[in-house]
């Protein structure tokens, strides 16, 4: 990680962003705030796109209202037996 202190370094925004495409950079602003700039990876970009999708967010809201997704072993055994019985009937 490279640090650029804007209180003492002369660097343009274009230069900062160009450096950030290949490495994580730390910027100290003229008023002393510290920022980190780095390229977003594909996974982060996909997450950002999904967060903007009303359809996907509605899907998540619906899923959150459903039961917790866990079932007992007895219930699982019963579901497996029903599926096997259904397959044999075909």
Describe, in plain words, how this protein is organized in 3D.
The protein has 90 residues and is α+β, with helices and mostly antiparallel strands. It has two domains: 2-37; 42-89, no CATH class. It has four helices and three strands. The protein has helices spanning 13-20, 42-51, 54-65, 73-89, and strands spanning 2-5, 25-28, 34-37. It has a three-stranded mixed beta sheet, with helices on one face. A hairpin with a 5-residue loop joins strand 2 and strand 3.
Number of structural domains: 2
Give the termini separation.
63 Å
Strand numbers in spatial order across the main sheet: 1-2-3
Which value, in Å, is the CA radius of gyration? 26 Å
Overall morphology: rod-shaped
Q: In what range is the share of β-strand residues?
A: 5-15%
**What class do helices, strands and sheet pairing give?**
alpha+beta
Let me know the average pLDDT. 87
What string, H for helix and E for strand, traces the elements in order?
Answer: EHEEHHH
The percent range for helix content is 40-55%
Low-confidence stretches: none
Strand count: 3
Q: How many alpha or pi helices?
A: 4
